[in-house]
Task: structure prediction
Amino acid sequence: MKRKLLVTGVAGFIGYHVAKKLIEDENNTVIGIDNLNDYYSIELKKKRIENIKTNDKYNNFSFQYCDISTAQSLKDLFIENNFETVIHLAAQAGVRYSLINPDAYIRSNIVGFTNILECCRHHKIKHLIYASSSSVYGSNTTLPFTEEQSVDHPISLYAATKKSNELMAHTYSHLFSLPTTGLRFFTVYGPWGRPDMAMFLFANAISNSTPLDLFNGGEMLRDFTYVDDVAECILRLCELPPTEIHEHSVQFAPYYRILNIGNNQPELVLNVVRKIENYFKKNAIIITKSIQPGDVHSTYANIESIFKLTGFHPKTSIDSGILNFLNWYSSYHNLSLNSKI
Result:
């Protein structure tokens, strides 16, 4: 049966991989939107889109420029299309950048998310799946993080906007019976990743023999989650009826659900640096710095809920994931390959 899905932030890292996976099913028609902002390389974003559009196997994808913080353009998009499912991945990302440009986070993550909720409400969308973040756990120290833990103490504006998204979704689920599922992503990495993320920054510094700022000496734990595993989780959630996903939702919002999407196996950041050193056969030029404002010491996802719902468990080991990323990185930058971790 044919269905039409909207993927927001489709030129972004996760959005690109999700769209690629969705269009493999010829019964899906996917419309992807993005505002192609200059937070990082627009060229990288355009190349992601071109990779999807030029795949001769599929003709069930189209791209439209759209800024979600502009309500009318979003309303027009929903009027023109009969979407069944909305996968909302557009957001202003980055914990540290939220200290520099807070306005961008309010426009995209608060105003933009409100516009998405309003469009989904008025057009009777069957399921809104949206990106939250592991950063909402803030300074929680009880590991692994579970969806039931309190997330009332975010320590960055980025985290606060994602926590706000969850509260806003709760309200719309309660008031309008809008099925919403928020996904708390844990340190997603892989090919076509963002240049501001740890894995990309490490590879860039080590391959170019430039200094690498390592906060807290790399003595932090991150639950690095491979992007194909994340995309597979989202695909499986799209296949489930919302009633099944929300069967055990909270009392006052029976159509509301939050899920951790992580690897369930945190890695020491310094060990990741060492693996990348081995690949390039170069030592990192490390400059040790204090932990940054807004950063947390450890992230570690309890993923029992997503497993019970979908039967999914991450398949990609950290070694395989890093190798896949570095092979892409080397190819993208025309570097020689060592193919060894």
The domain at 3-187+226-261 is CATH 3.40.50.720 (Rossmann fold). The mean pLDDT is 93.
